[in-house]
């Protein structure tokens, strides 16, 4: 995360505001900052999205290729996450300074998507044991203004929503190997089911209170946060993964309060994101360079 120098007086001011449920920027402990979302920005990618959350700016591009399923899971496809922290995003990202954070973000996403209830890789299988689709989710952090985990998960889900996979019309067997015939029509494609893909919500503990969508300044006032990956299936909500940030510790009651706050916020956030994506696709169609804001 971006390190911001704050005086003790500034930290005390932020802490008192959180305790009164009135943060520095006027939000309550449950509110997110305004977001702007753009999709289909990268022409040579199967899907892409750019999300700006206040001063946090994330660009996601998704590429697809045909691969061979793993021996352990012959009926599943593959998905890989790669995060790159731009040196311009924060001074501490210069050189190799952002590698540790990038790896932490990628691992958290991979763990959140690991459950078949959250993201079913069987949908990416072409021929069991022979061929499958592999998704490369490349995430670039253009600017760091706090709450990277939430912003990255939202941008990744938006990019997966508009990802188009060429349709496989037939498969011929040649000497035991599959020879696929893939449609070259750009409009003859399949879409990825993203209904159950989890949303990450960072619940930040400041003093004795918990807040969502912490700014960079608020992150400096916290010693520990918990990232909750929340998904929905069959009208029920479940947590697919949790990840702790910071050097502090959490009491079991605090963990319960964090989850109690994070789960309903994730549901509202996911609902707003899906409405925005559907509205953008239905109203604006294939128009390029479009921008749609939500949660404003």
Automatic annotation (TrEMBL):
List where in the cell it is found.
Cytoplasm; Nucleus, Nucleolus
MF annotations from Gene Ontology: mRNA 3'-UTR AU-rich region binding
Annotated InterPro entries: ExoRNase_PH_dom1, ExoRNase_PH_dom2, ExoRNase_PH_dom2_sf, Exosome_comp_Rrp42_subfam, PNPase/RNase_PH_dom_sf, Ribosomal_Su5_D2-typ_SF
In terms of SUPFAM superfamilies, this protein maps to: Ribonuclease PH domain 2-like, Ribosomal protein S5 domain 2-like
Q: Which CDD domains match?
A: RNase_PH_RRP42
Q: Name one GO biological process term.
A: nuclear polyadenylation-dependent rRNA catabolic process
Domain Exoribonuclease phosphorolytic as annotated: residue spans: 32-166, 196-262
What Gene Ontology cellular-component terms does the record carry? cytoplasmic exosome (RNase complex); nuclear exosome (RNase complex); nucleolus
- Which keywords belong to this entry? Cytoplasm, Exosome
User: Pfam families from the entry?
Assistant: RNase_PH, RNase_PH_C
> Member of which family?
Belongs to the RNase PH family.
**What is the protein name for this chain?**
Ribosomal RNA-processing protein 42
Q: Which organism is it from?
A: Glossina austeni (Savannah tsetse fly)
């Amino acid at each position: 995360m971006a390190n911001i120098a704050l005086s003790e007086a500034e930290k005390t001011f932020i802490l008192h505001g959180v305790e009164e449920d009135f943060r520095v920027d006027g939000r309550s402990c449950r509110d997110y900052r305004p977001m702007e979302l753009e999709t289909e920005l990268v022409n040579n990618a199967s899907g892409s999205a750019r999300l700006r959350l206040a001063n946090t700016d994330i660009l996601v591009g998704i590429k697809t290729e045909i691969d061979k399923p793993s021996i352990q899971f012959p009926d599943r496809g593959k998905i890989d996450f790669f995060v790159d922290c731009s040196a311009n995003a924060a001074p501490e990202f210069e050189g190799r300074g952002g590698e540790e954070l990038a790896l932490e973000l990628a691992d958290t996403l991979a763990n959140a998507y690991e459950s078949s209830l959250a993201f079913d890789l069987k949908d990416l299988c072409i021929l069991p044991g022979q061929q499958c689709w592999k998704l490369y989710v490349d995430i670039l952090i253009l600017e760091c203004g706090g709450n990277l985990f939430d912003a990255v998960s939202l941008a990744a889900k938006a990019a997966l929503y508009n990802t188009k996979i060429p349709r496989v019309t037939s498969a011929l067997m040649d000497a035991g190997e599959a020879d696929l015939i893939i449609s070259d029509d750009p409009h003859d494609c399949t879409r990825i089911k993203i209904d159950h893909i989890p949303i990450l919500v960072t619940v930040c503990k400041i003093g004795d209170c918990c807040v969502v969508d912490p700014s960079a300044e608020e992150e400096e006032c916290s010693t520990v946060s918990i990232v909750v990956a929340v998904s929905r299936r069959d009208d029920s909500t479940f947590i697919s993964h949790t990840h702790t940030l910071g050097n502090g510790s959490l009491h079991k009651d605090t963990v319960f309060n964090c989850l109690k706050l994070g789960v309903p916020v994730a549901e509202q956030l996911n609902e707003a994101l899906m409405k925005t994506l559907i509205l953008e696709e239905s109203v604006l169609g294939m128009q390029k360079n479009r921008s749609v804001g939500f949660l404003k």
